[in-house]
Design a protein that fits this description.
Two copies of one chain form a homodimer. Chain A is α/β, with parallel strands linked by helices. Chain A has two domains: 3-109 and 303-326, ornithine cyclodeaminase, domain 1, CATH 3.30.1780; 117-300, Rossmann fold. The first copy, chain A, has twelve helices and 16 strands. The first copy, chain A, has helices at residues 9-15, 18-34, 77-81, 107-125, 140-152, 165-178, 189-193, 236-241, 249-255, 259-263, 276-280, 302-319; strands spanning 3-7, 37-39, 43-47, 52-61, 66-74, 86-93, 100-105, 132-136, 157-161, 182-185, 198-201, 220-223, 243-246, 274-275, 294-297, 323-326. In chain A, the strands form two sheets. In chain A, strands 1, 2, 3, 4, 5, 6, 7 and 16 form an eight-stranded mixed sheet that branches. In chain A, strands 10-9-8-11-12-15-13-14 form an eight-stranded parallel sheet. Chain A starts with a strand and ends with a strand. At the A-B interface, strand 3, strand 4, strand 5, helix 3 and strand 6 of A face strand 3, strand 4, strand 5, helix 3 and strand 6 of B.
Amino acid sequence: MSKVLILSASDVKNLLSMRDVISAVEDAFRSHGRRTMKLAPITLTLIDKFEGEHEIKSGYVEDYSIGTKVLTYYKHNQPRYGLPALSGIIVLHALKDGQVLAVMDAGYITSVRTGAAGALGAKYLARKNSENVAVMGAGMQGRSQVAALNEVLGIKSVKVYDVDRQRAVDYVAEMTAKFDFKIEQADSPRTAIRDADIIVTATPSNSPYVLNEWIQAGVHISAIGADSPGKQELDPAIVARAKVVVDDMSQCVERGEIQTAIRLGLLGRQDIHAELSEIILERKPGRANDKEITLFDATGLAIQDITTSYRAYRLAQERGIGTTCELG
Amino acid sequence: MSKVLILSASDVKNLLSMRDVISAVEDAFRSHGRRTMKLAPITLTLIDKFEGEHEIKSGYVEDYSIGTKVLTYYKHNQPRYGLPALSGIIVLHALKDGQVLAVMDAGYITSVRTGAAGALGAKYLARKNSENVAVMGAGMQGRSQVAALNEVLGIKSVKVYDVDRQRAVDYVAEMTAKFDFKIEQADSPRTAIRDADIIVTATPSNSPYVLNEWIQAGVHISAIGADSPGKQELDPAIVARAKVVVDDMSQCVERGEIQTAIRLGLLGRQDIHAELSEIILERKPGRANDKEITLFDATGLAIQDITTSYRAYRLAQERGIGTTCELG
């Protein structure tokens, strides 16, 4: 009989600080650059009848474990049933003997590891004195990106835009209570990004709503929302003009923000400057000067889930947190 | 906060009779024939350094749920560490809103649903008076196939062959204690299949060990072992000569027993008589006469895991079995 550790969303939240998550995700990128990991193809199944999606991301990281994230996304759950849009688990198997180690909630980890990835993009690509942030999309990810950015730079102000004004109002209230910097609502994407050093796009949009002519020299863009075929937030001319860094070449070409620019022939694989891991490992330079526009295209890698959830698993063992269950 | 039901291997074993499993798997085949289900591509990741495999099978079945099985296979675990070769979970999500319903051990369900699929192949394809069974491979699956066959026909005798003689001795002792029919060890594959009405191949072989000239008219073969690229148990001439029925066309062509005959050009897709579901739904005939050699190629479908584990989930709810955990 084998024992398995079960960690709830609140266990994971209590175990992991944003600093832990950033450190785990940076480790994931290092292993990505060193190829001491494997990413399996992503499986996406559409549940057409109920407008739901079921997605599996898996792989392994040496010195960590095998990990599989199984996550559904039902975008109408909140209005229809008062239920969360995301529901799923991460299961960790030991690399050496394949035994199940832990099963934990996937929602919180997905949110914070995505925030951490965006912050690492900014850490390695944004201008050093960046302090004004524009956030598109006042959802969970809009919150997570700012919480993570706050760990890697000194934020002075955040402007948030959402098509749903009430969501933006709620965002400002909630985030103002949490952080010391100034947080305001913007009336349009254009006003949000005026004077921004860093632009975070974190909406589920399928069409561009940030135009090329609004983008000023020196800006860094974290393109977070577009992570599956058909999604897009930026004018493809921005992608063509920026220094493009991706989290993973194959995933971004297929499902990232850059997919449209590639399809339109505005960007070729050879135009992609680097994978973020190459910059972290100092194999390629990051930003060259203060005028460059940099773009980090983040689709989300299973290895980020693995290192982050494994960190939670180890901390839970140390601190005696979670529920131990018979499984095998 | 959401509650999730956790079921251990022994919970599942206590909940499901072989009759329940056969009924659930037959339901899976019906939904397969009616296309009221979806099978996602299988993800297989090799953990080369430790000679392990990590496999994900997923999909959904209408009127049941979404299901994902994440299972590792480390074939050296028993001799090396005294650990089971298989370790994994099945997670069920509700079809309508995607919420996680249950997480349960995958090992026992994989074993019995595969047994049930083999038995259904025999129920619909073997001669009605079949009573003598030859089993290749004295492992867990050799046991499960016989336990399931015993529910669909009157077994008179079982002959078992294994390259490891001690395993066959143990099999005979264990199965004789469980069942009333005669169970004997065979010295070779050839002597095992002499006078057999049904041949079950359930080894991890990568090369053929059952030759065409040994196969007599009227036999039914359940080809269970070959379920991934490279695996093979039968002389491809047997496949070319038999009436071939598959559990799923795409999976069997790519990873089933028939993969080699297809690659060699001895069998084309058009030569495959049917998917088992078409025979169960009476859209195509099964066995035509008592002389025909029938072959059921079973690669194992995620939908079998889904209907079987969902059955366990519902029975657990009715009977108050399992552990309820906070997850979301």
